[in-house]
Structures are given as C-alpha cells and as structure tokens.
Amino acid sequence: MEDSVESKLTLKSDASSEPFSYCCSACDCSEEPLRGKVFRNRTKARSMSMPSAPSSAKFRRTQSLHGPSPVTTFGPKACMLKNPKAVMHIQDPASQRLTWNKPPKSVLIIKKIRDASLLQPFKELCIFLTQQKNMIVYVERKIIEDPAIAIESFVSLKKKICTFREDYDDISNCVDFIICLGGDGTLLYASSLFQESVPPVMAFHLGSLGFLTPFKFDTYQSQVTQVIEGNAAVILRSRLEVKVMKKNREKESVEEISLVTNGDKTMHYQVLNEVVVDRGPSSYLSNVDLFLDGHLITTVQGDGVIVSTPTGSTAYAVAAGASMIHPNVPAIMITPICPHSLSFRPIVVPAGVELKITLSHDARNMAWVSLDGRKRQEIAYGDSAVEVISGC
C-alpha cells in the first residue's frame, strides 16, 4: 500500500472557542467553468497504486507531537501561514492561520437537503457570493432540482450557479473552499465528496448538532469575507484511510473492493469520524480480531468496535463511553460497543499505526462495516479484512 497523507483543515472563529472545519485538496483548476452550465465530463476515479506485498512499515508517516503535520496543500490556492521565527520556531497547531496563494474565485455550497428552513439562508448566501464577491458558486444538482427551490424567486439565481453530480462530475480541481449549511452530518458529507485532499470548509450551524459547526449565520457576510481575504484561524483535522479486502470466491484470490465505485475499482476511502464494525441485523454478538501493526491485540466480543479519529471521538465513540480527544492530538481511538467483557475499555493508540480487523474463526455470524455512517457492507467469514491507518 502506497503511503499517503490526508489531513483536514479546521477553521475556528475568533469569536468562538469552537473550531470550524476546513479540508484540503492538492489540485489546480485548468479550465474556467461556465456559470449556469452543467458539467458533462465523466469523473475518473482516482485510484492509488498498491505494491504486491503489504507491509506495516509502509504505513509509517512523519508525526508531530504538536498534532497533524500534513504535506499536502489545502485546495488549489489555500495554504498555511507560517509563524515568524522570531515568535515561534515550531508551528503551533493552536495558532495556525489560513492564507491564499491566489485570491479564491470559486466556492462549493453544501446544503442540508429537503430542509425548508435553509432555503432563505441558501438564497442569501448565493446572492452575496455571486453579486457582491463575484465568485463562481457550485451546488449539487439534486439541491437545485429540489421542488422547494423550483419557485420564481430562484429562477434568476439558478442561471448563475454551476451544478454537479456526486460520483459523476469531478470538481476537486476547481473548488477553492467549501461552505456548509446544516449540522455535523452536512460537513461529514462534504468531506466524503473529496477522497484525496479536501478544500477548506466553513461550516455554519443550521442543524441539530454543532460540534464542527461553530459559525452563526447571522454574521455570515463578515465571516465569509474574512476567509476570502485570508488570515483566518484554522485547526487541522486528520482522517482515517480505510481499505476493505474481500476474497474473490470465484477466482480464489484476494482483491480490494472499492467503497466508492461499487467494487469495480480499487480505492481507499477517507473517513473523518469513524469506522464501525458491528453485528448488523444479527441477534448474535459479533466476534472480531483486532491487530495492531500485525500483532493480535484482542478479540472483541460484543455489539462491535469503533475506530475513530480525534474528531470522531465526540460522535459515536463518546456515546459508547469513550473520552473526547482534542483534534490536535495525533491519535486513534478504539472503542468497543457493549463489550461482553469487564476489562475491555476504550483505548488510544498513536496515529500512524496500522489497525486490522478480521472476523474471528469462531464467530457465529457475519459482521458489517460502515464509514461515517455510510457505505455499509458485509464482512464474510474469514475472507475479509478492514485495514485502518491514520491519515494525519
């Protein structure tokens, strides 16, 4: 497996102690998109070349005691503003700022779908960005096709917006930053759209949960202007790189199944919150083996196990009894779900280790894996494995 780095930038408001999310993407846009036009080019999935013999040493990556230390850029134009040497020789993750190589010209807006309360904020934001900031706005086609938006007041606005389709149109080269309108689930969906690096993400709290969405929409004009002008506060957030391997029963060989393209291509999947391996619809307890850097650590018997990032430690993991981890701590949290044991409690391992989860030989039923609550699929007896490494 080829060593790769995947990090997530998280912006934080100076007026709030909570972070705001920002993701990264190392690409350049070579074509000038047309306003109001739909992209027709079919997306070519970005696959990672894999060596023939897997090795845990391949997963080693440079770690920083001060938090995630990415080697990618953050979108076509975003980058980190280095601290002056006179102030601090080490880049402090608590004082990082965003800057731009070139002024940002395009923005992707992700809106919680089928939510009537977000129609007016969505309209105001689009008008502000297109008319006052003269920016190119990208929106998913399914949002524009929402019957609630098919009203006269949105007709003129639709002509100024570029649309795209998930898993079909590739806009990763053209988006400078992302704005989310919704809750934490909306931000997780935005992260899933960018399977390599992710452009900066600014998340406004307009949903039910708001661990990752500290910005209030009441002050959106000043907040967005600050991001466009640069020097906004950021927090880096790491993601997990996940691979599911299944045995091809027809060819009697092991092949990698893509969690992105329905099994027809080999890809890694980047996860912001957590990987969950559970018992699925079965009434029996799940029984899976957990390996750390090739060594069997324990057998998890219970409802399942959660492997989460520091960001995901505030999600399913904390509901299962784990502690919260600050996003600047380079670590992976392993949390059992209702374990049938008095000794197995949540544990923290260093970022950069290789975790492998397989179905135990004495398991009474299959297991199921899900990534950030999506891409759920079954793990069969003894012929499947889930490999997880930190992307920081």
UniProtKB/TrEMBL annotation:
<dbReference type="GO" id="GO:0006741">
    <property type="term" value="P:NADP+ biosynthetic process"/>
</dbReference>
<dbReference type="GO" id="GO:0003951">
    <property type="term" value="F:NAD+ kinase activity"/>
</dbReference>
<keyword id="KW-0418">Kinase</keyword>
<feature type="region of interest" description="Disordered">
    <location>
        <begin position="43"/>
        <end position="66"/>
    </location>
</feature>
<feature type="compositionally biased region" description="Low complexity">
    <location>
        <begin position="47"/>
        <end position="57"/>
    </location>
</feature>
<keyword id="KW-0808">Transferase</keyword>
<protein>
    <submittedName>
        <fullName>NAD kinase isoform X3</fullName>
    </submittedName>
</protein>
<dbReference type="Pfam" id="PF01513">
    <property type="entry name" value="NAD_kinase"/>
</dbReference>
<dbReference type="Pfam" id="PF20143">
    <property type="entry name" value="NAD_kinase_C"/>
</dbReference>
<dbReference type="InterPro" id="IPR002504">
    <property type="entry name" value="NADK"/>
</dbReference>
